[in-house]
Design goal:
By secondary structure, the protein is an alpha/beta fold. It is about 30% helix and about 25% strand.
Length: about 200
């Protein structure tokens, strides 16, 4: 890498929207303390769980809408969004929705949803799926799995060395008000959709 790149990432949120305002505060803190060069927020997948409200009501879109408000660059939506749900969301967010058919390639970076997906020669290929270890070799970066409430930081220095660390969300982390508002908006929309579905069924 010609310049440092820092990826601050999450995984396995599984629809726990209440975590996100505090996660955002924590991620911004980590960005200030550990990041260097270009810094991107990314998600490795399992952002929604259809057994968790309001994931089912929004067809997997609820968490991703909040991640978009948090300024995420890309998220692995393979197994989270159906093609129809992805198409509905794609026009509403700037967040790049990465799945097996839609890698994100821009400015020498490629984000793919699985390790066996290869793209044309680029500067760095980031696999948005959990691996056994965080590694950087032959232009490919892999990252480790996380639980909800954990944040990973991967920084590739200008000399090509990978610096990787995992961080648990401190219990005393305050919520960021703007993201709290985004969560309430998503919940309100989900309640509206739920009422409309019940009306249609009735």
């Amino acid at each position: 890498m010609e310049t440092p790149l820092t990826l601050i990432y999450t995984h396995n949120i599984r629809g726990e929207l209440a975590l996100l305002p505090r996660m955002y505060t924590f991620m911004r803190r980590l960005r200030g303390e550990l990041a260097a060069g270009r810094t991107l927020f990314i998600d490795l997948g399992a952002s929604c769980d259809l057994d968790v409200w309001p994931c089912a009501i929004t067809e997997g879109r609820s968490t991703l809408i909040v991640l978009d408000a948090m300024g995420y660059y890309a998220a692995n939506v393979q197994g989270v969004l159906t093609p129809v749900s992805r198409a509905r969301l794609a026009g509403q967010v700037t967040l790049h929705l990465v799945d097996d058919k839609h890698p994100q390639i821009d400015d020498g970076l490629a984000f793919v949803s699985a390790a066996d997906i290869h793209v044309d020669p680029i500067q760095l290929r980031v696999v948005l799926a959990p691996a056994d270890a965080a590694t950087y070799a032959k232009g490919t970066l892999t990252l480790t799995a996380l639980e909800a409430g954990q944040v990973g930081v991967a920084r590739i220095a200008a000399d090509g060395k990978l610096h990787h660390s995992l961080h648990d969300l401190p219990a005393d982390t305050p919520p960021e008000p703007t993201i709290s508002g985004a969560v309430e908006f998503v919940r309100g929309e989900a309640r509206y959709f739920e009422k409309r579905q019940r009306g249609d069924e009735g």
